Amino acid sequence: MALTSIIPLPRGWGRVAIDPTLKAGIESDLRRYKRWKARLKEIDNLLSDISISSGTSDQPSGGSGISDPTFRTTVNRSRLWQERAYLQRRISRVENALEAMNDEQKTLVRLWYFEEKDRRYIEAEMGIEKSTFYRIRDKALERYGEVAGLIPLVR
User: What are the pLDDT digits (tens) for 88-106?
Assistant: First the structure.
């Protein structure tokens, strides 16, 4: 996104807030990360099953068209490969952002988005106050946006 994805805060606040729509998208990505990884694993299993079953199939392949098992298998494999590529891109984006975060940010992201722990639990676990929780979270989301190219690195 362009510069329109950031909203200046009043003078003296010293930072820039992420556009709420962009923030919601980033948070959605982080919440879906574990499901994406699980789905990618399942797709890999399905693709290996299809490879095994299509190589040993003894069903007749009479005619062409939708009822042809070979055609259905090819279409299914194609869809799985497309979904796999999409998931790999999304997973890679999250992992690249995590690599760019500091340890505090990574811990908060893991506990809040991946493990879905309660905010109070995270505050106690990390030894931080509520305001610090939100500051770390916002910086983590900002780092994600920068790494993903959603907000500019230089402001």
Answer: 999 999 999 999 999 999 9
Q: Which of the four pLDDT bands, split at 50, 70 and 90, describes residue 8?
A: low
Digit-coded pLDDT (tens) for 43-83: 999 998 876 655 444 444 444 445 667 777 778 899 999 99
pTM of the model: 0.75
Q: Do residues 133 and 124 make contact, with C-beta atoms less than 8 angstroms apart?
A: no
Q: How many CB atoms lie within 10 A of CB 1?
A: 15
Distance, CA of 32 to CA of 30 (rounded, Å): 5
Closest by CA to 113, choosing from 141, 142, 143, 73, is 141
Domain boundaries, the chain: 26-147
Tokens of 73: 């298998």
Determine contact, residues 5/22, Cβ cutoff 8 Å.
yes
Residues whose CB is less than 8 angstroms from the CB of residue 30 and which lie 6 or more positions away in sequence, other chains included:
94, 109, 113, 114, 144
Q: Which of 90, 74, 76, 75 is nearest to 40 (CA)?
A: 90
Distance of CA 67 to the CA centre of its chain: 36
Residue 6 forms beta bridges with which residues?
18
